[in-house]
Amino acid sequence: MKYMEPVKFLKELIKNAKVKKPYQRLRVLGLHFREDYISLAVSNPENTIALPLCILHRNENDINYLADKFQALIIEYNAMGFIVDNKKRVNMQAFVDRLRKTGKLPRAKYTYWQNNTILHQTDFVLKHHLRFISEQLNLPAAVSVEILQKFAAANVLQDYLNYSDLMVETDEK
């Protein structure tokens, strides 16, 4: 795994989008770490929309299992690498170092990104959907909060993709 500054990561992603045919475009995976799980998201092929992907339960003793899962996701989604949530960088840096030492992701690139903006539209839609689900299924409020937290990787990745759109617009002017 190779670390890249967020802007360099973005420039490589944009360069790839211009050169490759649509089915060869590289996508991006978003990672958000919690104490007991990792929430993942994937970008669409145009790298404009982040979609929640899955939840992987963390087992600190089985880094090889997680490396295998990430390797499979990179292949399945033709991903260039990871946008890693930057809120708890110290813990994540140790995890990424352990992941890198497995040697199972040699071509994967990664960068850190902190969701600096409040995604008003995304938050509004998620809260509306969660309220609807909890009212219709009579779920406790704690379950709604847990569901919202599991969308964290999609929020971080969407913020990065929104930043990339802004950078492309600025470069075109």
Structure description:
- InterPro entries: RNaseH-like_sf, YqgF, YqgF/RNaseH-like_dom_sf.
- By secondary structure, the chain is α/β, with parallel strands linked by helices.
- It has a single domain, classed as Nucleotidyltransferase, domain 5 (2-Layer Sandwich), CATH 3.30.420.
- The protein contains six helices and six strands; from the N terminus they run βαβββαβαβααα.
- Strand 3 and strand 4 (50-57) form a beta hairpin.
- Helix 4 runs antiparallel to helix 5 (141-149).
- The longest helix is centred in the last third of the chain and has 21 residues, at 152-172.
- The mean pLDDT is 81.
User: What is Rg?
Assistant: 16 Å
User: Which architecture per CATH?
Assistant: 2-Layer Sandwich
Number of domains: 1
Terminal CA distance: 34 Å
Strand order across the largest sheet: 1-6-5-2-3-4
Q: Percent of residues in beta strands?
A: 15-25%
Supply the CATH class.
Alpha Beta
Low-pLDDT stretches are none
What form results from the Cα inertia axes?
A: globular
Q: Profile the largest sheet.
A: 6 strands, mixed
- How would you name the CATH homologous superfamily? YqgF/RNase H-like domain
Helix percent reads 40-55%
Helices and strands: which structural class? alpha/beta
InterPro entries: RNaseH-like_sf, YqgF, YqgF/RNaseH-like_dom_sf
